[in-house]
Write a structure and sequence with these properties.
heterodimer; A: 122 residues; mainly beta; 11 strands; 0% helix; B: 107 residues; 7-stranded mixed beta sheet; 50% strand
């Protein structure tokens, strides 16, 4: 079964850091770009970032650029999102999602995980 | 950024009703659009891709239409399991952007 499972969310104080993980299974992980998308309460979905099969980023949303870093470990079938200087505006349910284009990048997302919640509060 | 204007933001409907949700793009995005269903505690599910193609395993009561700047998701006969929030996603321009979402509630 093709699956993505996020972890690492939790309660964090403003200004602190958190690292999210996304574990993939059931497909040739190293052939796919993986994205992070967040669901902000009361606002909706926002694309955050994506990482190529070689580990290069394909960009960041303006709202997180300079604070978030995406990476991957193909040996562990995992993608990570390092989030620094967290603020209330980063509180959201974070999903990882697979790009639908094997060997390319289309930004069309076909498979999603269930998400991991990040709460920013003192 | 390409703006996606989705309407309505919410609707109340009964089982068996026909439901239509619209997304309008701020510029031509060809057919680079998908529709997604979100339910609490579950992984989002893609229903439609390339604006009109039904994702494998998705019931045929779901359909998508449109190209360019106007797109529609239609549920021909609403079922109890369809009460959820729906989003469109454009992936023609960078960054990819979503509509604001439509919450479908039980009347």
């Amino acid at each position: 079964e093709v699956q993505l499972v996020e972890s690492g969310g939790g309660l964090v104080q403003p200004g602190r850091s958190l690292r999210l993980s996304c574990a993939a299974s059931g497909f040739s992980f190293s052939n796919y770009v993986i994205h992070w998308v967040r669901l902000v309460p009361g606002k909706g979905l926002e694309w955050v970032s994506g990482v190529t099969w070689t580990g290069g980023n394909i960009g960041y949303a303006a709202s997180v650029k300079g604070r978030f870093t995406i990476s991957r470990d193909n040996a562990k079938n995992s993608v990570f999102l390092q989030m620094n200087s967290l603020g209330a505006e980063d509180m959201a349910l974070y999903y990882c999602a697979r790009d639908s284009l094997s060997g390319g990048n289309s930004y069309a997302l076909d498979i999603w995980g269930q998400g991991t919640m990040v709460t920013v509060s003192s | 950024d390409i703006q996606m204007t989705q309407s309505p933001s919410s609707l109340s409907a009964s089982v068996g009703d026909r439901v239509t949700i619209t997304c309008r793009a701020s510029q031509d995005i060809r057919n680079d659009l998908g529709w997604y269903q979100l339910k609490p505690g579950k992984a989002p599910k893609r229903l439609i891709y390339d604006a009109t193609t039904l994702q494998g395993g998705v019931p045929s009561r779901f359909s998508g239409s449109g190209s360019g700047t106007e797109f529609t998701l239609t549920i021909s006969s609403l079922q109890p399991e369809d009460f959820a929030t729906y989003y469109c996603l454009q992936h023609n321009g960078y960054p990819p952007t979503f509509g604001q979402g439509t919450k479908v509630e039980i009347k």
